[in-house]
Each structure stands twice: as C-alpha cells, then as structure tokens.
Design brief:
The chain has helices spanning 15-27, 45-48, 80-90, 101-126, 134-147, 162-180, 187-197, 203-214, 216-219, 224-235, and strands spanning 6-10, 32-35, 57-60, 75-78. With 239 residues, it is α+β, with helices and mostly antiparallel strands. The longest helix is centred in the middle third of the chain and has 26 residues, at 101-126. It is globular and about 55 Å long.
C-alpha cells in the first residue's frame, strides 16, 4: 500500500472535487482534507498548490505539514480526472481503474461522453441559459443510457469505476436542483424533465443512477445542504 502522505484541497460544493473525494473513499486511502472557499480563495493557494487556483488538487508525498504550507518536497497534482486515475494507479486492487484494457477504454469513453453530452448542459440549465432546455438535458440522459451495458450494475461492468465516479457528482447536483426547484430555469422545464424521466424507456438509466446515489463513497462525500444553499444563493428558485 502507498505510504506517501496525501493532502487533498477540495470544496464541498464542487462536483469536480467530489470526484476525487469519492475515489479516495473507494480505495480507503488515508488523507488530509483542506476545504477551499471558492468565493474567497486563500492567497497562498495558487502560488503554493495550484497555479490555476482550482480544486481539486493534491499534494502527494513529502513531510506531514499543515495544508496551508505544503512542502516543496511534495508533488502537486490537479484536475479531477487525472487525480481519479492517479488514485486508481496508487491502489490497483480497488479496481476503480480497470485492469482490463477494453474496460479501461470503455470507462474513458463513458467519461468523454459525460464531459461532452451531459456536464455542460447541467450548468447551462442551472444558470437559465435558453439553450439548455429539458430536451437538451434529456439528450444527455439518452446518450448515457445508450451506452450502458445490459445486465450490469455500473457504467461498464458490475465493478464501480472511474466512469461512475466521473458522472455521479454532476447527476447528484442536477437531481437536487430539479427536485428542489433551484436554478434560473423556468419551472415548466424542470417539471417536463422530471415527467419525461418517468417514462419506462428510462428504466435502465434510473436504476443506474439510483445505484450511484446509494453508494457509500458518494453519501459520505456529498453535502446536500451546502449544495442547496450555494445554488440557491447563486441562481435563486425556478420561476
């Protein structure tokens, strides 16, 4: 097992950061957690941890020091999908990064689809962008359901992998927004989206996301109250 220390710089509200937290929970890695206020980032964060000033980031290795003063001996890493794969490489027995090259390629293809077909419309919908209607959201759902294999629990197999980790935080936040009516979109769009998902043709997708949200690694890293408060303050309620 890896013995190097891990310090994770994260934010409860951020779906990208939650990807990394889920991965760490899945593999059972010990780590030090440092919450970064994304609306008031500390002055030391960009020069000492991540020049892009984004979360998540990891300081890996080096001596055990306070997060706000990371050692120059530690390696600084960033970007959620890179970090998730890095954690999978550190803990290969977890199988979050499939050993089989075909499954690994399928997981990465699933992530690409999430990144291009689903995630962009999530933020557009929340912010009231007229391009992001319930129809656009459903197109993302259709794309994901279209590549879910039959007869397995998760995105590429019965094993929970990087593919599922990449998608879960975004679906969870959209789910909170549409269930609570939070966002700058029209309330009619929210109702149409929820109504459409009741169609039996989405049974595979609905079963899949229910399993994602039931996963302990998700539940232990998701703060619905923080997400709800942040998006309500930022976008208000649907009208």
């Amino acid at each position: 097992m890896p013995q190097e220390q891990i310090t994770l710089y994260t934010a409860k509200v951020c779906p990208y950061a939650q990807r990394t937290e889920i991965a760490l929970a899945e593999v059972g890695a010990p780590f030090k957690r440092c919450e970064i206020d994304l609306e008031n980032k500390p002055e030391w964060y960009a020069p000492k941890v991540n020049p892009a000033s984004k979360v998540p980031a990891i300081a890996y290795g080096g001596p055990d020091v306070p997060p706000e003063n990371p050692s120059p001996e530690s390696t600084k890493l960033a970007e959620s999908l890179i970090l998730v794969e890095f954690i999978g490489d550190l803990y290969p027995s977890s199988n979050i990064l499939p050993a089989d090259p075909v499954l690994r390629a399928q997981a990465r293809f699933f992530i690409e689809l999430v990144s291009t077909k689903f995630s962009p419309n999530f933020m557009k919908f929340a912010s009231g962008n007229p391009e992001a209607t319930h129809t656009a959201l459903l197109a993302g759902v259709d794309a994901i359901q279209g590549i879910l294999p039959d007869g397995v629990k998760y995105a590429v197999s019965d094993q929970y992998t990087i593919a599922d980790i990449a998608f879960t935080p975004f679906w969870a936040r959209l789910n909170v927004l549409v269930q609570k009516g939070i966002g700058a979109y029209k309330d009619e769009e929210r109702k149409n989206f929820l109504k459409a998902l009741e169609d039996p043709k989405y049974a595979k997708f609905n079963g899949y996301v229910q399993r994602l949200l039931a996963r302990q690694s998700f539940k232990s890293t998701f703060r619905e109250d923080v997400v709800q408060e942040f998006f309500t303050r930022r976008f208000g309620l649907a009208k």
